[in-house]
């Protein structure tokens, strides 16, 4: 069944796709990894991967979507009937991600409320974040965020998703640039008279640190950058296939892919400029903890250290994070909605209503995973986690590298790269990176994805020991 909805044009598609790609992971995970993995060294590796692996994965998903006019399940089936299973696996990734993304959105919403109603002092209390997520009342914030997401998807592609993305993305870009510039102007004098400045923090961020570099260390940094790529570009989860199915045939996909790459990577880089200098000035690099610790613990302390202006920056930052979470959450729910519309031959509004009920329940369960439904499970990658961490591990660390591996085999050796190239050259446009795409898809992608899959399941660590 051909999708009846579509984006109005290239700008609408690029903003929506970039909105999906620019998520919370760009704002906390990218800066953390850059600080942990040698600053400029990580940036160089990540940029190289974006221009090669990221380009291949993004091009493949979008071209598959537009060429077939279908979402993941039926897109793969229309290519090869025996490969419908890959579409089903791909569909399951957003199904799992949607169970917890609104929960994270709810956390951000809570901090927006804190900064709007107080000086931000509450946010720097030692147990603020932990006390909040471990309280059953935290569930309401996640439910509100989920309802907002569902309302936008309910209104369709052009009137809902595209309209919101066209507003949010320019605002988000302006806010990121503005806070990044402000971050570079910061400075503080320590008790011993040493002065720390934002520009010193920028040097820490940008300068490649080769201290203690080994082959194993280089490989780990590369794997970190690769895993960030999945977070960042929304690839191998069916979202870009769905969005690609809404793209009109007169849109130049070559330009669109490049614009999405630039916008997404630019925001990730600027997020580092925004966060690392500020954290460096007020906390050194000790505050660069992973995950929620950076966004909900370290940064509020930085904002509070700024005095009155810190409250304003805190409001701006969490509104910015809320926008990023919302556009990503919308794309995840839209992917699920589009697949269900095709599977059950139902119209959008009815499908969205049913999915809203399902995911309001799922959001509540995951949000309560830190209180009423608390569990602690050992994961194959060596970490332990609650319900949210389990869903995140299965979808991002296990399924996405596996999907990319199978996709490389299907496109590289069964359909052949020329199948994608024809769609990229549909209107006479030149597929400038065709040779790169062919080599990457057939020979390099399968190897990279096998390594990443082994690493995410803990097998690679055992081998290296």
UniProtKB/TrEMBL annotation:
Q: Which CDD domains match?
A: SLC6sbd_Tyt1-Like
Assigned GO CC terms: membrane
Quick one: where is this thing mainly located?
A: membrane
- What Pfam families does the entry give? SNF (PF00209)
Q: Which SUPFAM superfamilies match?
A: SNF-like (SSF161070)
Against InterPro entries, the record matches this protein to: Na/ntran_symport (IPR000175), SNS_sf (IPR037272), YocR/YhdH-like (IPR047218)
* UniProt keyword terms in alphabetical order: Membrane, Transmembrane, Transmembrane helix, Transport
Q: Quick check: keyword Transit peptide in the entry?
A: no
> How is the protein disposed in the membrane?
Multi-pass membrane protein
Q: Where are the transmembrane segments?
A: 7-28, 40-64, 85-109, 139-155, 167-186, 225-246, 267-288, 308-333, 354-373, 393-414, 443-464
The cellular location(s) given in this protein's UniProt record come to: Membrane
Q: Superkingdom of the source?
A: Bacteria
Name the chain's protein: Sodium-dependent transporter
Specify the species.
Dorea longicatena
């Amino acid at each position: 069944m051909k999708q009846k909805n579509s984006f109005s044009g290239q700008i609408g598609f690029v903003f929506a796709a970039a909105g999906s790609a620019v998520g919370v992971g760009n704002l906390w995970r990218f800066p953390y990894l850059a600080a942990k993995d040698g600053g400029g060294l990580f940036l160089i590796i990540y940029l190289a991967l974006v221009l090669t692996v990221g380009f291949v994965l993004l091009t493949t998903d979008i071209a598959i979507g537009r060429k077939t006019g279908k979402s993941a399940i039926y897109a793969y089936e229309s290519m090869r009937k025996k490969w419908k299973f890959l579409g089903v696996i791909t569909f399951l990734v957003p199904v799992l991600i949607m169970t917890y993304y609104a929960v994270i959105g709810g956390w951000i919403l809570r901090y927006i409320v804190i900064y709007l109603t107080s000086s931000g002092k509450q946010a720097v209390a030692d147990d603020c974040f932990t006390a909040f997520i471990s309280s059953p009342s935290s569930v309401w914030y996640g439910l509100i965020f989920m309802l907002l997401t569902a309302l936008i998807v309910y209104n369709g592609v052009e009137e809902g998703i595209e309209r919101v993305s066209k507003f949010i993305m320019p605002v988000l870009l302006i806010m990121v640039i503005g806070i990044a510039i402000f971050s570079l102007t910061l400075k503080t004098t320590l008790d011993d008279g040493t002065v720390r400045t934002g520009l010193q923090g920028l040097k820490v961020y940008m300068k490649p640190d080769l201290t203690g570099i080994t082959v194993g260390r280089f490989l780990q940094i590369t794997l970190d950058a690769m895993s960030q790529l999945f977070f960042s570009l929304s690839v191998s989860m069916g979202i870009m296939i769905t969005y690609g199915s809404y793209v009109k045939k007169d849109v130049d996909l070559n330009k669109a892919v490049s614009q999405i790459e630039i916008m997404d990577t630019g925001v990730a880089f600027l997020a580092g400029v925004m966060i690392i200098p500020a954290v460096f000035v007020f906390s050194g690099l000790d505050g660069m903890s992973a995950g929620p610790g950076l966004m909900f613990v370290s940064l509020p302390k930085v904002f509070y250290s700024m005095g009155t202006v810190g409250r304003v920056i805190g409001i701006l930052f969490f509104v910015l994070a809320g926008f990023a979470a919302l556009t990503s959450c919308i794309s995840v729910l839209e992917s699920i909605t589009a697949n269900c519309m095709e599977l059950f031959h139902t119209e959008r509004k009815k499908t969205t209503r049913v999915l809203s009920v399902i995911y309001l329940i799922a959001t509540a369960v995951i949000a309560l995973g830190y209180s009423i439904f608390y569990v602690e499970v050992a994961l194959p990658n060596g970490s332990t986690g609650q319900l949210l961490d389990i869903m995140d591990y299965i979808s991002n660390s296990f399924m996405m590298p596996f999907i990319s591996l199978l996709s490389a085999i299907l496109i590289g050796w069964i359909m052949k790269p020329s199948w994608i190239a024809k769609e990229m050259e549909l209107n006479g446009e030149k597929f400038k990176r065709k040779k790169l795409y062919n080599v990457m898809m057939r020979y390099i992608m399968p190897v990279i994805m096998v390594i990443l899959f082994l690493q995410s399941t803990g097998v690679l660590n055992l081998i290296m020991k």
